[in-house]
Amino acid sequence: MKRTPAVLCLAVLTALFVGASGRPPASHWVATWTSMPQLTEPSNMPPAPFTGTDRVLDNASLRQTAHVSVGGPRIRLRFSNAFGGSVLPLTAVSVARPAGGAAGVSAVVPGSVVPVTFHGKPSTTVPVGAQVVSDPLPFPVRPFENITVTTYLAHGQASLSITSHPGSRTTSYLLAGDQVSAPDLPGATPVDHWYFLSGVEVLSPASAVAVIGDSLSDGRGSTTNGNDRWPDVLASRVPAAVVNQAAGGNRVLQDGLGPNVLARLDRDLLATSGVSWAIVFEGVNDIGTATPDAAASTASDLIDAYDQILTRAHAAGIQVYGATLTPFGGNTGYDDPAREAARSTVNAWIRGHFDAVLDFDRVARDPAAPTRLLPAYDVGDHLHLNPAGYRALGSSIPAGLFRAG
User: Fold this and answer.
1) Strand (E) positions, 3-59?
2) Do the Cβ atoms of 169 and 191 come closer than 8 Å?
3) Residue 22, burial from CB neighbour count under 10 angstroms (0-12, 13-18, 19+)
4) β-strands 319-323, 275-281: how paired?
5) Which of 173, 170, 76, 175 has the alpha carbon at shortest distance from 131?
């Protein structure tokens, strides 16, 4: 029987509807772990003998832990040379299961080591200012699993300007020679920093939440190797990947530790694979480092910057949730009436203009003294939170904000 155009159109629409509703979502590459790239300060360079007069990690291996948020059947790795002063030659890389599944350990499960390749080759060179993505690896991961990445540099990187993430809150290990297949690294030097490794992606139907923040999201005050920052708590509660693109000392308007948010937005948010949502929890350092006379104008500039973030993220189809700035009353460097007034101005704007509001200020403040942190959440400097405080922030976020569709 010959079908009319109307019947054919109905058949096509029915097939599309049934296909969309009856099949599981298609898998795609999505970031499941990130570390925001930064220029390494002198105090955070690899310790002797791994930093020489003109290069780092000469004939040395680096073993690091990454804690994924969502799982999948295949992964791929990202390495960054964003701030390197020379090319970054990666001689060999492997991925493995850490001993006991733990974060920050030097041993791996025997037989779990898988070599990493780049366009089918065991090595690659990352140009200055660039990043590379590995080939997909037959290395399935479970949600919230720790994985071990070991990198060998036969001749090091010929510069003292290198890319890292100092605030890892996770222990890495340095040892001379090619150790990519070694089951353990006896005698290795421990360091609580990440170097070069900037992302792990997984093949998954999930979408990602990118956290744009400073030390309050990077986890100052959290437990080393404990993965108890507030983004970690959020990841345990939602069906999405949660990737932490925060750095201690970072600011929205001006460079600090790492580039300012407006400068790094393309790299750390818009170019991160699979992101559907962003959480912006940053601005305390802008206000806290402003002179009291400039606090009001800094608040106005912050509001303008938030509006820019919303505009640029929306153009990429990303929803942006704003977190109100938590108190800093009593902090030696930041506490000042003019700065507190600026924080109040900024929070009032955040509460009325983002796609959703995460009112961290209300969660973390002391009801009896609203310009200060609740003592039970204060790590002791009246600015950063302890694990209980981060747990309260992460638990306060409605999980329904991160359901696809």
Assistant:
1) 28-34, 38-39
2) no
3) exposed
4) parallel
5) 76
Q: Supply the DSSP string of 308-354, one letter for each residue.
A: HHHHHHHHTT-EEEEEPPPP-TT-TTT--HHHHHHHHHHHHHHHHHS
Q: What is the pLDDT of residues 103-131, one digit of tens each?
A: 999 999 999 999 999 999 999 999 999 99
Mean pLDDT over all residues of the chain? 94
Do residues 164 and 44 touch, judged by C-beta distance below 8 A? yes
- Hey, is 280 helix, strand or coil? strand
Q: How far is CA 144 from the centre of its chain?
A: 14
Q: Please, is 175 exposed, middle or buried when counting C-beta atoms within 10 Å of its C-beta (0-12, 13-18, 19+)? A: buried
Using the structure block, give the residue that is written with the tokens 């949502």. Answer: 277
Burial class (CB in 10 A: 0-12, 13-18, 19+), 353: middle
Q: What pLDDT score does 257 carry?
A: 87
Strands 172-176 and 60-67: antiparallel
Beta strands in 214-318 (DSSP E): 241-246, 275-281
Q: What is the pTM of this model?
A: 0.92
Query: Coil, strand, or helix at residue 14?
Result: helix
Chain segment 168-192, per-residue pLDDT in tens: 999 999 999 999 999 999 999 999 9
Q: Give me the DSSP letters along 59-127.
A: TEEEEEEEE-SS-BS-EEEEEE-TT-SS-EEE-EEEEEPBGGG-SS-S-B-TT--EE--BTTBS-EEEP
Find all residues with CB under 8 Å of 61, minimum gap 6, and list them: 150, 151, 152, 153, 174, 175, 176, 177, 178, 179, 180, 182, 185
Q: Which one-letter amino acid corresponds to residue 80?
A: S
Tell me how far apart the alpha carbons of residues 393 and 397 are, in angstroms, rounded to a whole number. Answer: 7
**Using an 8 Å Cβ cutoff, are 148 and 33 in contact?**
no
